Amino acid sequence: MENGHQFPESRFRLKGLVAAVFTPFTANGDLNLPIIDSYVDQLVSDGVRNVFVCGTTGEGMSLTTEERMNVTEKWIESGKDKLDAVVVHVGSSNLRESQKLAQHAQDVGAAAIASIPPVFYKAATIDHLVSFFKEISEAAPKIPFYYYHNPGITGVKFQLEEFLSALGRNPVPSFCGVKFCSNDLYDYGRSMVLCNNHIQIMYAVDEQALPSLTLGGDAFIGSTYNYAGRVSNRMIKFYNAGDMEGAKTEQFRNQAVVNVLMKYGGNVGTNKAMMRLARLDLGPPRAPVHTPSQEELKNMKQDLESIGFFKWNNE
Predict the structure, then answer these.
(1) How far apart are the C-alpha atoms of 220 and 231, rounded to whole Å?
(2) Fewest Cβ atoms nearer than 10 Å: which of 74, 100, 234, 300?
(3) In the annotation, is 121 catalytic?
């Protein structure tokens, strides 16, 4: 398994930043789909041309199936000829719902789908989890499938290395890679060796993107790329040019942003508030996620000003 021979080389591969996009709401909590047109233009202006729709940042688990389909359709419509890829998260705790979302994503032109594990009735073994994902992927066999590995949120604590080994026993034909949302760089590195670059392991901890670059990472999914994509794009550019000091400067700037984000809760509500201050007002999160008060918003802005965010974020 060390040489990755169990994995046929995937022809589908994202490159650079992938924004884990927010789902826009009106003040009363309804979908605000028209603003996605402006949202796409803003991302492209910041050099971000791939999106991950209806994931954690996108509050997918707080949307109805119909709403998730509507959001997917709008991103694909608005991103046509502008975005490189729209990846749709179809995960839920209901296999039939995930299959329905997967088939819909394929039918309306998504580039790929992804899924978290079920989080209520959890898979008892890693082999059960692989079988669950295989059933989802079979509902959309024509497009690639990513495993969304997020143990901190899902409580599903299998190591990615274990998951990849299990795939060797029960291959998923459309499997093309992983969204790796964990700060366990040991597991990330071991998994990179295991897959031998035949599949893509996209790193999804924004504040640790630079270390993942040194381990071979070439695609990065994150929420801060919605409003601070220029910073992380510069980091990648500096790293690829051999300028480690420049790359570190930009990574440290991203970490300063994340520090402010965490100070005010680090949740989707705080993140949407950051987006509002930096780029677009996409409305509040859905309950039970906290919406920052005007006082919190004022303090957040002051904290961002104190680190020079509004200057270097727009360079």
Answers:
(1) 13
(2) 100
(3) no
